[in-house]
Amino acid sequence: MAETQQTVYIVEDDEAVRDSLSMLLRSEGLAVEGYERATRFLEDWHAGMQGCIVLDIRMPEMDGMELQEALIERGSHLPIIFVTGHGDVPLAVEAMRKGAVDFIEKPYREDQLLEKIRGALATDAEQHQGREEKRMIEEQLAQLTPREREIMDRMVAGQANKVIAIELDISQRTVEIHRSRVMHKMGTHSLAQLVRMVMSVRDGDPE
Question: How far apart are CA 118 and CA 163, in angstroms?
Fold first, then answer.
């Protein structure tokens, strides 16, 4: 599976600011896409995007806060850095409560914004890796038979082979065979690692 390039998405209605920031980021070797309107970015948004958003908090038609709300509803994982004017700090704080990673006040120093953008890109990369690992574990779990899944759940709960055999009314040797298959399909030889893998995909589940 090919890696998707991280892109800095600049959503800013001021053309001069947008172009200046785009040039700065490209000079730093970063991929950039600029948007004059939040609505236009929302049209292009898709779940596979990687990178971060530099988002002006005040814009016509749809402002930065409204775009953030729309992206939350769509399940976007893109980190957002809000660019705020004087007096907009309370709005930026509210945006961070809703998941924005940072904000910066105008006028800002270029090196300060660059530092925040690199931090947001690192956050995005880490979160993307976590989602990919979770997806792979879910694919491994899907390969287990119902009996293997049942025995794996008991393993993760800390039950010994003898206890599993008694409760399922099967031989201890049969438990050992299933246990070996579970470990093989999950790609691990460590019960501790298996527990971490299973817990990582169960975190946040409603059950």
Answer: 51
